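Can't paste images in this forum, so I'm doing it all in text. The chain is below; anyone willing to post the predicted structure tokens underneath?
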Amino acid sequence: MYLAAVIVVISVLFGSLYWLTGRILFLFAGMQVKKRRIRCLRFLVSILIAPLCFRWGILGFIVAHLVVLFALADLVAFIVRRIGKGQEERTYYKFLRAVYHFGIIPISVLSVLLCYGNYNMKHISRTEYIVSSHKLRDNYEIVFISDVHYATIQDPDLIKEKIAEIEKMKPDMVLLGGDIVEEGTSKKAMQEVFRIFGGIESTYGTYYVYGNHDRQLYAEERAYTGAELEDAMRAGGVTALQDSYVQLGPDLVIAGREDVSLGKEGRKKTDTILQDIPSDAYVVLLDHQPVQSEENARQGVDLQLSGHTHAGQLIPIGYINALTGALNYGEYERGGCKVIVSSGMAGWGFPFRTQEKCEYVVIHLKRN
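Text version of the structure:
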């Protein structure tokens, strides 16, 4: 299955590059792309560029967007030709044809997307939610942070600036929703980020659950071991919740799950984790990926906090996620359990965000 998937991806990439080079040579150089020598040129260019797309993700990002944008331009041109049949000598038609043949629309749209996406990635917003419950005896302020991918895509200085902003709030607790670090994070940077997060002054401390990237499971060569990651957390004052919970008062329980990427064998069931908690306690569950919320509701979870999705990060991924019924971003209600999915403090893979925003989340738990 893996080999078949690789073959499909490579075939699609090569076909897309072959088609794209044809469009570019035709529109910008006026070449007859069906001639044998031009086809050979397109084939060679595609062979050369395809491996580079895997090597440099940004190049793959640009190629993918160009393919989509040129395809959309061709679709619009096809529609205009059908609607404008018999009006080829009119000024508007000549203008549209000239714009199309210059190929400037796909390039211009891509330039705007790159500029906006880079700008959007470099700004982190504060998003607030108010959640009330009759189970709560006191009010609590939670800061929830996920998907930092420290020292990779996002500027570390911007992260530190936002941490300083959070410290001024003096929240009741800080909850870290996984993927705080990743395969591209060095050992030194990993130690630094847990020292920073653990140093945030709060009433009850900082709690953390693993994401699918924190342990560098996808790295060819890991920069740190699992033990070194745990040591950095302990040294920073961060408490990891691995299918476990902590009771912060008679009315509030914070539980944390192992990431679903470990499979059923590496992750306990919700009812096993929560079997000993007081039945009248308000339960906040941290789970890196927004899954099993209905099952969590049946087991008494009141609020689930997740990340992982990055809200799609790149248009239209978030919209596709939402169409499939997956929890993508924002606030949901599932079987009596409220679910908040954060877009994360950073992106992953590319230094661009064209969908939603980077954020940290403040949740005001109110007694009702």
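The chain has a mean pLDDT of 93. The longest strand covers residues 124-133.
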